[in-house]
Fold these 2 entries.
Entry 1:
Amino acid sequence: MNIAIIGCGGVGKALLELLERQQNLLAKENLYINVKYIIGRHDDARVALADPELDAAVILTPTNKDNGQPGLDYARAFLSAGKHVVTADKGLIIHGYRELQDLAETKGVKLAMGCTTGGALPSINAGIFDMAGSSILSIEGILNGTTNFILDEMEASGCEYADALAKAQQDGIAEADPTLDVEGWDTAGKLLILTKVLMDERVTLDDVQVEGICRLTAADIQRATENGCRYKLVGRAAFDASGKLKLTVKPEQIPEGNLLYPVGGKNKAVRYVSDTLGELVIMGGASGTTPAAASVLRDLVSIHRKRI
Ligand code: HSE
């Protein structure tokens, strides 16, 4: 499989390493991935687009929540050229999911986005494949590792929010602009993607009521602990009593016994409630650039296996 990597930052570099490291494993299923092009911000993509031997584009441009660019134009161009697209960029799915999916279908290629809703956490693909033939009625999740780590750290050490954030940045899990994490926009983007793809709802970021964790103090965290609860930043898509879909992201006090209570550190979790398959909770998955790259690789393998 000949691929082009568009945007080669932390996840791209981790992917290059991983392709080398997993070579033998991939060879067992006759998958040989050759990185034919690496396309950076100032490079011309035209040669790659016109290359009949190129099979897939891996789009790793940074998420732009306002308009999905430049990832969105790359995805349009590579799908139009008949190449599979695998992406970790949430912005292009938030702003172009329906259009890109239709384009992929017209061209007979695949659009894979397993990395966009929690990296290693098999959230969106599990929803697509393992809840097929069932309607997802609500989605609830801890979808951001950075904020979960910060809240955990504040609870464990009694430190203030700013100190815990500095630690998350040192660990490399926070977004380049960490306000996207702590103000809830990363969670909102992931929730939106899950809702669009799995519930087939035409929603935008403006429909999500978003509140981050910046205002929580060490004293708030301690009070929650005394009440047998833990603060978690929860993203939720559910219908209210009048049948209207409500999308919210906000810090919630989760009581002990709730399935989201033990989700600690950089871990994430998602809970789907469906009409015929019951309730499904998926939890865990490593965080960081290598696990994110591994979830991109997982999508490439799934395309090779014709599972996507
Ligand atoms: N910054 C994100 C997180 C990782 O902390 O979960 C990419 O989605």
Entry 2:
Amino acid sequence: MNHEFFKIISRDEFQTLLMNFRSTGTKASTISDAFGMVLGEDIVSPEDLPPVSRSCMDGYAVNARDAFGAGESNPAYLECRAELRVNEKPDFTLNPGECAAIPTGGSLPDGADAVVMVEHTQDLGAGTIEIRKSSAPGDHTMLRGEDAAKDELIFKAGHRIRFQDVGLLAALGIGSIPVHKRPKVGIISTGDELMEITAPPKPGTIRDVNSHTLRCLVSQAGGIPVNYGIVRDELDKLESTLARAVAENDLVLLSGGSSVGMRDLTVRAIESMPESEILAHGVAISPGKPTILGRSGEKPIMGLPGQVTSVQVVMLALVAPFIRHLMGQTDAFSTSGRPVVMAELARNTVSKPGREDYIRVRLTERSNELPLAQPIYGKSGLLKTMIQADGLMIIPADTEGYYSGRSVQIWMI
Ligand code: AMP
Ligand code: MG
């Protein structure tokens, strides 16, 4: 097969191929280690939270009916039955005409369904409390089960655990949850010209940048990066390192070898793996066209561009969501999880139709206006465009560009 005449597929088609790979297995995790991990199973609330109705304010627990319609000019007068403490479960039922002093967080006695803030009351002495504000059921109270009701589905399998979710799990006493394992991601840099960053420089060599940036982006996505160093452009060397990386990881990334002559090397190395197949040979995004997807058995292998900027964009656009997919996240490829800001495009920006363009942009804040998005152009072999960029503007494949002044979404990086 002549790999020079590779078939380029759309970003959507590429994504569909990625989504066909199965996620990693699950394990039990303590909730302190679960931050950023993805749930392996649905989580159902074991109890009502709060377990009893509680006060949100310092004040008086009342039956709202007794204070309904009360105001500055026509206060209600209630008899103070008790002074409750925060850690006390009242053992009485509030009768009509009665109230109970209650601190923030205190449990409401039976018969009470609202709290009147202390600011709207006056202690008249001899156990009489003047209420100067109308009250409705539920006012200033957290009702039993309002955060979570017993047996309610609180998180679905495939949900990535955020800090606020850890808070709910803690409040429910759920100390251990099933999560997907972090995918191990092997990283191989290829190229005769590459050298380790600490080696003495020699003419004709360049330092290996991609091993380092890929490592950061793998970690950021939730994977565990495993570096295999630099491999020369020789098939047998590439094959042996790739075989080791495939055996030891859930995903293997190769960078470099994307020039037409060299592409065959990556493809041939992938094809030499057991039960291997090339699934995609080019993707219609810019930068990042020379991206290869293959597999060995169930294990995905990706050949990424060598250009330092292109590979960073491909990591953000395709590989990071893929890592989140591998670790079980249901909506890994949806754009809704991306940090996005709206901005006004500073100049006309053309885009070649037929490919999705990832334009690096720099944002300038303005008072009372959307930030201004300035496209940054530059060669993909230079690190500069990504260094200067605050975010990426994506121009869809079917669009020939955007006019200046347009409101655009910027994906913050
Ligand atoms: P290639 O895809 O191997 O043809 O590489 C394209 C360009 O990216 C060449 O200029 C390479 O020297 C450069 N390149 C490839 N791999 C790396 C790397 N790991 N670090 C820095 N530059 C690289
Ligand atoms: Mg190369």
